[in-house]
Amino acid sequence: MTKLNSVLRNGVGITVLGVCLLARTALAGGFKVQDQSTRAMGMIDAFVAGADDASSVYYNPAGLTRLAGPQLITNIYAGHAITRYKDANETDSSDGRIYVLPMFYYGTPAPGSDRLFLGIGVYEPFGLGSKWSDDSPVRYNSTLAEISLVNFNPTVAYRLTDRLSLGAGLDFFTTTVKMRHMNDYSAFGGGDGQVKMEADGRGWGYNLGLQYQCTESIMFGVSYRSQVRVGYDGDAEFQDVPPALAPLFGGANVSYDADAGIDYPASVTVGLSWQATEKLRVELAADWQKWSTRDVQAISVQAPAGVPLPPPTPIDWEDSWVLMLGAEYQLDEKWTLRAGYGFNQTPVPASTADPSLPTGDTHALSFGVGRRVSEHSTLDAACVLAYGERQTLDNAYAPKGSRYYAMSAYFSVGFTYDF
User: Fold this and answer.
1) What is the CB neighbour count within 10 angstroms for residue 248?
2) What is the pTM of this model?
3) Which segment, 268-272, 358-362, 402-406, is predicted with the most confidence on average?
């Protein structure tokens, strides 16, 4: 029974981590996707005080009040990341797959009003993933961890005075998680078996925003996003269970009902935008994310009586900061240049880090360009290059003494149409 408990702790227990510890993105702790607009991405997402287009639905809903008229924005975002693994005997890397996310925003003044504004956004604020080969040194911890999450975000904003605007919106999450890892059954006369989990969930939240024109050249902004609790329902599947264990599991290939909950964190973002010259705007922003609610993660698996299941898994995540400094320069009537630097403080302590999220703090550089192609339309492009600091793990969730670092590249193209 002791051997079986060990197998299941590396099975169902890591299934829990597969749901929760998903691939790091360039600029945000945990599994948050910070880049939600091509234009803002070019400025490393320092776009809370200066938010002034339809993507304000995400960055700061109060910014909708700065629209001159109806506006539509569509973006395509592609992420590519490789995590490197090394220990005393071997090296390996994740497969570096590419994830593509679409984004859509629409904002408009309310009919007959120059103070009330309406907006809607459909985008993916959390997600991406990582994949390792089935013979990787980390295969007993993770071979696949992916999340897809779409947020439907209707928004309203109101200009109280010429200097002060407020905004608010609802968040509706619909999401799917997938994970896989291998189980070592050699102690029971078998080889490696595979554990899979796929689950779907939904949840509700809200967001608030404020913008204040401090002086003619300085704008202050703050936005808040509530925590969203998502309950997941799905299946945990065990494959290639050896004959010695098959009667206990109920077969060599079995699937059990499973459910879990994920708390997507509350966040507060503040920014100060400075119109340094007629052509140059600079913004400094900071995003605080309340990951500390993720102290323990539990999963419920409807396994047959007698199958020992692991206790709730301690993860002990910590609150974290993302710091962003970005700039936008109007080169001429048609061309705009953008750039920025971002620093992400990881919320995942080394004591519970997993091969799905193994690296330390992240540094990133962004570059962007905008081109007005007609009186009503603009094309934008942006890229982010990021480096996740090297970290050595020595815990129950990763191979002992394994070292990791990550290199990432993110690209986006966008189209804006002003009606």
Assistant:
1) 14
2) 0.85
3) 268-272
CB neighbour list of residue 136: distance below 8 Å, 6 or more residues apart: 85, 92, 143
* Residues 383, 366 contacting (CB under 8 angstroms): yes
Query: Tell me, what's the pLDDT at 11?
Result: 43
Bridge-based pairing of strands 218-225 and 267-275 is: antiparallel
Whole-angstrom Cα distance, residue 243 to residue 229?
Answer: 40
On whether the CB atoms of residues 187 and 212 are closer than 8 A, the answer is no
Other CB atoms within 10 Å distance of the CB of residue 341: 15
**Dihedral angle over CA of 393, 394, 397, 403, nearest 10:** 30
In whole angstroms, what is the distance from residue 230 CA to residue 66 CA? 33
**What HEC string does 222-281 produce?**
EEEECCEEEEEEEEEEEECCCCCCHHHHCCCCEEEEEEEEEEECCEEEEEEEEECCCCEE
Which CATH superfamily includes the segment(s) 2-418?
Outer membrane protein transport protein (OMPP1/FadL/TodX) (2.40.160.60)
The stretch 273-289 carries a mean pLDDT of 97
Task: Please tell me the distance from the alpha carbon of residue 172 to that of residue 24, in angstroms, as a whole number.
Answer: 23
pLDDT tens-digit readout, 44-57? 999 999 999 999 99
Q: At what angle do helices 12-20 and 2-9 cross, to 10 degrees?
A: 10
Q: Note whether 234 and 199 are within 8 A (CB).
A: yes
**Whose structure tokens read 């004591």?**
351
Residue 379 in this model has a pLDDT that exceeds 80:
yes
Ranking 15-29, 229-243, 285-299, 357-371 by mean pLDDT, the lowest is: 15-29
| b (16+ CB within 10 A) / e for 195-234 | bbbbbebebebebbbbbbbeeeeebbbbbbbbebebebeb
CB 156 within 8 A of CB 65: no
- Name beta bridge partners: 235: 198, 257
Query: What's the rounded Cα separation, in Å, for the pair 110 and 129?
Result: 39
Enter the tokens of residue 41.
Answer: 């991405």
| 220-246: average pLDDT | 93
Give the model's pLDDT for residue 396. Answer: 65
109: Cα separation from own chain's centroid: 30
Report the C-alpha gap between 104 and 81 in whole angstroms: 24
